[in-house]
Amino acid sequence: MKHxxxxxxxxxxxxxxxxxACRVDSxxxxxxxxxxxxxVAEYLSVGANSATWLDAYEEKLKSDDIVxxxxxxxxxxxxxxxxxxxxxxxxxxxxxxxxxxxxxTDAALYHYDPKPSNRLVVHYMQPHFPSxxxxxxxxxxxxxxxxxxxxxxxxGSVWEQLNNGDVANEEVQEAYTENLxxxxxxxxxxxxxxxxxxxxxxxxxxxxFTEPYGHxxxxxxxxxxxxxxxxxxxxxxxxxxxxDIEMSSMDDKIDVEKRLSSLGYR
Length: 266
What we know:
Layout (H helix, E strand, L loop, with lengths): L14 E6 L3 H8 L9 E4 L5 H12 L4 E5 L13 E3 H4 L1 E2 L4 E2 L1 H11 L7 E9 L14 E2 L8 E2 L4 H6 L5 H25 L5 E4 L19 H4 E7 L23 H7 L4
Parallel strand pairs: 1-7, 1-10, 3-4, 3-7
Antiparallel strand pairs: 2-11, 5-6, 8-9, 10-11
């Protein structure tokens, strides 16, 4: 029997890191080699995709005491909130079709407010495809909306490649794992420069390598609905130091649908 999803805003943390589409078992395996992470627990997420997760927590994310820094284009409901920093608008990498984790870290540190009552939510796009270390594994997706057809065409995506037998499941899982390692290095940077904060790491939803694009809207499998929870601490020598960020001016003409498509949401 599935238990009701808990309200993660009632848990203890100063900084909440969201790893998009992060599997419980994948995070467990990776943090074994990282001394700065606690034990990984798991719980039932409020949804199987980012849109559902954001709908459930929208009011919390728009609270005056929350700064929400996000690489996920589904943050549109938060536009009216001054505390919503939409990195996907300012630092989108057109070549990769996503936002680099480095840019999210730098934006989070730039916008962090050290007041005791304030909390910071940092939503990385990884390990969700596209894979930054292996960009040939992408989430390219074209929706036949122009024809009025509700069917979807997974043109060029990692899921089409997998379905067609062009790549092996093991190759896709390896690309996913490398993407997770990549973003965890950035979490290490974040925690090191916020060493006085209690940092928790979780996910909006999981990922299944046996279902279309990894987390279909109505997915009920444990791999999609079960998500991790653990605490992370600072390390002595992170792989890089944050840089002074360059947040480009926001453009009202940004193609939200195109950026969602790059991530496999449209």
